[in-house]
Amino acid sequence: MEHLSVAQSESEIKEDTSMKNHHPPDKDKDKDTNMEPPSSPRHRMVVARWLPAEAQRPNIDEAPVFSPSSEEFEDTLAYIEKIRPLAEPYGICRIIPPSTWKPPCRLKEKSIWEHTKFPTRIQNVDLLQNREPMKKKPKSKKRKRRRNSKMGSSRRRSGSSPPSAEPPAASSSSSPEAEEKFGFNSGSDFTLEEFGEYALHFKHSYFEKKDTKRNPSVEEIEGEYWRIVETPTDEVEVYYGADLENGVLGSGFYKRTETVTGVDQYVASGWNLNNLPRLPGSVLSFEACDISGVLVPWLYVGMCFSSFCWHVEDHHLYSLNYHHFGEPKVWYGVPGNNATALEKVMRKHLPDLFDEQPDLLHGLVTQFSPSILKEEGVEVYRVVQNEGEYVLTFPRAYHAGFNCGFNCAEAVNVAPVGWLAHGQNAVELYSKETRKTSLSHDKLLLGAAYEAVKSLWELSSSSSGKENATSLRWKSFCGKKGTLTNAIEARLRMEEERIGALGRDASSLAKMEKDFDSNCERECFSCFYDLHLSASGCKCSPGDYACLKHSEDLCSCEEEDRFVLLRYTMDELSSLVRALEGESDDLKIWASKVLGSQEEDETKKTSSVISEEKKLKKGSSFDLNIDLELDCHEEDVKEEEEASTSGELTASESFGASIEPMSLGFLIFGKLWCSKHAIFPKGFKSRVKFYNVLDPTRMSNYISEVLDAGLMGPLFKVTLEESPDESFCNVSAHQCWEMVLQRVKDTCTSLGLPTSPRFEGINGLQMFGFLSPSIVEAIEALDPNHRLVEYWNHKNQTSSESKDHFISSNCSVSLTKGKLFGVDLM
What we know:
Layout: H1 10-20, E1 65-66, H2 70-73, H3 76-87, E2 92-95, H4 110-113, E3 117-124, H5 176-179, E4 185-191, H6 192-207, H7 218-230, E5 237-244, H8 264-268, E6 298-302, E7 307-311, E8 318-326, E9 329-334, H9 339-349, H10 351-356, H11 370-375, E10 381-385, E11 390-393, E12 398-403, E13 407-414, H12 420-432, H13 441-461, H14 469-476, H15 483-502, E14 509-511, E15 534-538, E16 562-566, H16 570-581, H17 584-607, H18 612-615, E17 626-627, E18 658-663, E19 685-691, E20 699-708, E21 714-720, E22 727-730, H19 733-751, H20 764-768, H21 773-780, H22 789-799, E23 819-820, E24 823-824
Parallel strand pairs: 1-2, 14-16
Antiparallel strand pairs: 2-11, 3-4, 3-5, 5-6, 6-13, 7-12, 8-11, 8-13, 9-10, 9-12, 15-16, 17-18, 18-19, 19-20, 20-21, 21-22, 23-24
């Protein structure tokens, strides 16, 4: 992906301000690109000229080019993984889509092309490599070399530099350090139509020869570009509309939210860059925020010589760039295993710039000759990207390049599971460099692990034998030595080593609150390391935390005042590794953690939306202790929901129970999320007393929940509240409670306790509370438009026979005095 930096010295700001005096009166100040003075670029001659005899085109090898078939092109991440072993050694590659891939460009709509303006930056192409450190720069406004193709100097009227653009634009109140950083000043605002016209004028003027006007080849432009960068004779400045956020021009691809005919295949495709970061299998899908430039694409509108300088992607992510229209882009890539070598070579040849600014490469404002890199033994490769083609860059692969003329491209990041090891290396490097992170790597890592656990659980508990592609993809990353398993295990070993190095006893280790970093970023006070997984603190400074590496630097307090917060213990993380390896007991434990946690989060999000008025009709009160009302003769349609129909009392009928609804949850409008007799809200939770599975002589509380089993629909879970390890899961509410009952009976047998011959079955719907009128009424209120058709059709059909579908005339059950398993029933 391309990024640019913005900076402005104090003297340049004054010069820029003086230009404003030539603008029209205040009433026209917002029309600066339509009514510019004669000194603006639209009126100024381009004096600098092409010197073909001095061309310095690099002689380097081409990166590989791939042409997927239509079938291969259907799965974006699968194709990237397929070509990775072949392409990653080059750091960069070109992908030519099938001939059928011709997405319409949204930017060519008249309202955008002719009327929507975007900001630009001014690039001094001749200073991208050959420049003096800013502290040595003469204070005079005049430069030694003549300004031959000066761009307009009207500044942006509003907005700030993009998140990844460093350093930010300076102002008159900026610190001296910020003012001394070299960067790209803000330029005029253009429409695409205006920018295209100027770009064409500039290129024709620059490359024109006596009595001829011809379009130079890519190779000729490339030779001239590197002549300007390496051995400049004139000052050459160009505009670049780079890092344009979504709110400026929007995306070049149509999105799902836009109703345009004939674009469905492009709107839904993974090659639509609006979809790519959050595709199933990309761990960026576990990032909650829409980070501009990372998860939300940026646009790049270029002209001849406009440049993107050497850089790697944030967190060493992959990037994918699509060329929407216009003239070619020339790229150069260095594989990730040569990244350190590139940095050493640039430091060797540009010592003054690095002495002044050690993090020079973070600024994205320094170009460097591929020829010199090659001479110094750095592997470097070339790509020419044409309209309608993609360029893919790999983790920690430095890349740079320039544009051959007016064009428009779009780029975004993506993180296949295989990126996790690279991402871990990136955050460790950022910590050493005291550099802030853009993402919480541990959130992404754990998010991937949670999703894998869900998939493994779904596959292991599926009785139909059907396997969906997403679950199988996640399974492929698991198992012993699986990519995801290795990433979690490596993180575990890292934590074990760092906790061990602290030498703390177990009493100083505490469980981290689940919401520790939910409402604010938690990062190390010293190195900015993300603290999602662990954090060190002290009683003396509440709110301040350190990573485990800088725990001792936080304060000088006694050890008894210090503590370490852990999201998961080392035993729990070890169990997670085993779960990913396929150990059934550990998988069960983590499936319970993950599914339960996700439902709790979803319920919290939606509970505030459900008003008390919707819970009840006509002002009736919501009783938190609702007596069970039984429908013994209700017709059963689904086998999973059948209670005993033998006419004998079921276990749920043979004692007086009260259902305590804990959470209504929220509705999912799918076929599996209701039956003819009940609606199953995702996140529903209730409490009920029943015989303890460990000691049937006691009555204990059980928590009944409705979780999400993916394609299988609702997953019903019952847990013994006093012993959470005793949990039962099934895709049927009835079967779930049948499992509880069977466990009770088995325990009775092993303990030699008598069982009642009438204790033959249990009604799962009843035990969940789905047959209790007040609960039913509250759940029905969640579906005012009757979208759960199967349930409402059946209810409407039977409404004429009974005013209340859930209470039949034969359902009243009188409790009989006596004992069952030695427990008094009355």
